[in-house]
Specification:
By secondary structure, the protein is an alpha+beta fold. Helices cover about 25% and strands about 25% of the residues. The radius of gyration is 26 Å and the shape is globular. The two termini are about 35 Å apart. The relative contact order is 0.10.
Length: about 650
């Protein structure tokens, strides 16, 4: 898609050349920083309309915009994207307009850091807008638009480079406007179709409690992604402090979050009426609000929440203890963890991870039937092949991270999409990316076809490392990667899945994996124990080394894997639970699969419930990881297991109910 208007920017950026932020993760890299981080520019333009019928708007910005028409909030975006495959939004804006003079304004933010949330730090900044009426272009961005650089907002970032706090000094009046500058060298290349903006809506807190003069405590009843909105009038220079948290104690929001974020904002009042309107968002349940004196109006308190549109298609009914509550916390995490993409968590990294998507994407697909955002994510990661044909682990962003285990799950994600949608054309478009992934890894095959060597990607196995059931892997993040079970199970599974995708398209099969399977069994299977081992020395057998061959169907006769998995239980992290549950299903052990989901040990979703979860956690319990996020959609595998395995096999115990 090509805009008809011109990309506009500010005088600070017009002389900046785009900087390259792309490189292999383990390669040394020095970026060229223009020093313009945390940069807000308010673009505006006045225009006259005789009629407001059938007015549509097409818009994009780098890094991110919030759009208003005649002072009313319209939308925000775009979804993160690489500059060579950039996103835009398109919508009907007729209801925001009036006959006569109108004003359009867009607050554009350039973050300028290397992190998982933004495709930033590349010196690309600005805005582009096309406006149409009855399908005819009427005007758009050019040098007649004005802009002002805003200085009233300051940020603090966490160790992941994402914004924790956003503080506003309402005393600063940012009213110095000048003409925008057309950037005739802008190199953004836009995708063919628009992406839906996130939905933004208001919620009222479940509980509003006055603690004292000028101090309130809010409980939303569940975790959300968003921010507080309120209107306040005080003396010039007075402070308004807002603390957000996922946990609270004695009506105190613990703003130093367990996940290593600090959610504390300190605002300074102007002396006139001030409206708290955040640009960024947080994930939280509790809020403390305080001022120097008693000037707060609780009737003005609102929570401005946001997420990708969430239209549930199915629900669960069951008399099995805990099962509906487990479904609910997984459902809630998927809702607020799906923003412009499938985030690992909406609190800390705010990044779209390839391995997380295996679980969260499929669970979301089952819940909502929303194949469009799933398909978009498949192309997001395909775009990362421009950096490395073996794909990045987090995309799109300026943060270069590579995890071998995650890359090898990409073919499975495409197959899951096809099995749900039957969309053969998307499979056709993405099969070359799949083949590029397998070709990348094939270069690291040793004499017997198994992988080892200087792959340039690290091996996750499972996360956190204390939930690997004793699976020990030297040099997991750098250097020479030894031949080990998990990586090779995923490699064989990826080749096997590519073969399936080729068959779907009627194309030749590229991989004869019989030799790889034989080598895998010979190298890792111990006939004495009838179990697979982690390494070639066959000194240890973990849950992971046995769940994956069961998941991918690499099983010798006479194995004891079913009993071993049942004995081990969920001796793994929450994302790997997907492979564990589905391994049991592949072995016909549906009762055991159900038992694992509802078990009451400290490695369970029930343990999350006992610890007060309203969304599923990053680990089984709050203290099982040093920086546990309390909203992590990668723990939503029960939804997949219930839909695919348990509902068909236990119709007397649970039922999937279609929703209107």
């Amino acid at each position: 898609m090509k805009f008809q208007s011109q990309w506009i920017t500010t005088k600070d950026f017009i002389s900046e050349r785009p900087a390259n932020v792309f490189h292999r993760e383990l390669e040394s890299f020095e970026r060229r920083d223009c020093g313009l981080g945390d940069y807000y520019a308010l673009f505006r333009h006045k225009f006259v309309l005789e009629s407001t019928e059938n007015v549509t708007l097409r818009i994009s910005a780098d890094d991110y915009y919030k759009l208003r028409l005649n002072g009313a909030f319209v939308c925000q975006g775009p979804a993160q994207g690489y500059y060579f495959s950039y996103n835009f939004n398109e919508l009907d804006v007729s209801r925001f307009l009036k006959p006569g003079e109108n004003e359009i304004s867009a607050l554009v933010f350039y973050q300028g850091g290397i992190n998982r949330e933004w495709c930033s730090a590349d010196n690309r900044q600005g805005l582009i807008v096309d406006i149409f009426q009855n399908g005819r272009f009427i005007f758009g961005t050019d040098s007649t638009w004005e802009y002002a650089v805003l200085h009233s907002r300051t940020h603090a970032v966490n160790s992941y480079g994402t914004i924790d706090s956003e503080s506003i000094d309402f005393r600063i009046s940012d009213t110095v406007f000048e003409n925008a500058i057309e950037d005739l060298t802008d190199d953004h290349v836009f995708r063919d179709a628009p992406v839906d903006p996130v939905e933004v809506y208001e919620l009222k807190p479940q509980t509003v409690k006055k603690l004292g003069a000028g101090e309130y405590f809010l409980d939303l009843g569940t975790e959300v992604a968003g921010s507080l909105s309120l209107t306040i009038k005080g003396e010039r220079g007075q402070k308004l402090t807002v603390a957000y948290s996922e946990e609270a104690e004695n009506d105190h929001a613990k703003h130093d979050l367990r996940c290593n974020c600090r959610y504390l904002d300190e605002h300074i009042l102007s002396g006139s009426t001030d409206t708290l309107d955040y640009f960024t968002y947080k994930a939280f349940r509790y809020v403390n609000i305080s001022t120097d004196v008693d000037i707060l109006d609780p009737d003005s308190f609102r929570i401005v929440a946001r997420n990708h549109h969430f239209n549930e298609k199915i629900a669960l009914t069951s008399d099995i203890e805990h099962l509906e509550d487990i479904w609910k916390i997984c459902r809630n995490a998927l809702k607020i963890g799906t923003q412009e993409g499938f985030l690992d968590c909406p609190t800390r990294e705010k990044g779209q991870y390839l391995g997380d998507f295996t679980v969260s994407g499929l669970a979301y697909l089952y819940l909502t039937g929303d194949a469009e955002i799933y398909r978009k994510t498949l192309f997001d990661f395909a775009d990362s092949a421009r950096v490395c044909p073996g794909l990045l682990a987090v995309a799109p962003s300026s943060y270069m991270q590579e995890i071998a285990d995650f890359s090898l799950q990409y073919p499975l994600q495409i197959l899951n999409y096809f099995n749900y949608t039957g969309d053969i054309e998307t499979v056709r478009q993405l099969l070359p990316t799949v083949r590029g992934v397998l070709d990348f890894f094939r270069d690291f095959e040793r004499y017997d076809g198994l992988l080892e060597g200087e792959i340039g990607k690290w091996n996750l196995v499972d996360w956190p490392s204390n939930l690997r059931d004793g699976y020990t892997l030297p040099n997991e993040r750098e250097g020479f990667i030894p031949c080990h079970n998990v990586l090779n199970a995923f490699y064989i599974g990826a080749m096997q899945t590519e073969n399936e995708l080729s068959e779907i398209l009627g194309e030749p099969i590229r991989h004869d994996i019989s030799g790889h399977k034989s080598a895998y069994i010979s190298t890792f299977y111990n006939p004495k124990t009838a179990l697979f081992c982690d390494l070639e020395d066959k000194s240890h057998s973990s849950l992971h080394s046995n769940a994956l061959p069961a998941f991918f169907g690499i099983l010798p006769e006479g194995n004891c894997i079913a009993d071993f998995i049942k004995e081990k239980g969920l001796a793994c992290g929450v994302q790997f639970s997907y492979f564990t549950l589905k391994a049991l299903a592949n072995l016909g052990e549906y009762e055991a699969e159900l038992s694992l989901i509802t078990n009451e040990t400290d490695h369970s979703w029930v343990n999350m419930l006992c610890e007060g979860a309203t969304t599923c956690f990053e680990a089984w319990g709050k203290s099982q990881k040093w920086n546990t996020s309390l909203c992590h959609p990668w723990a939503s595998s029960p939804i997949i297991a219930i839909v695919e395995d348990l509902a068909p096999n236990f119709p007397d115990k649970l039922r999937i109910v279609p929703l209107d």
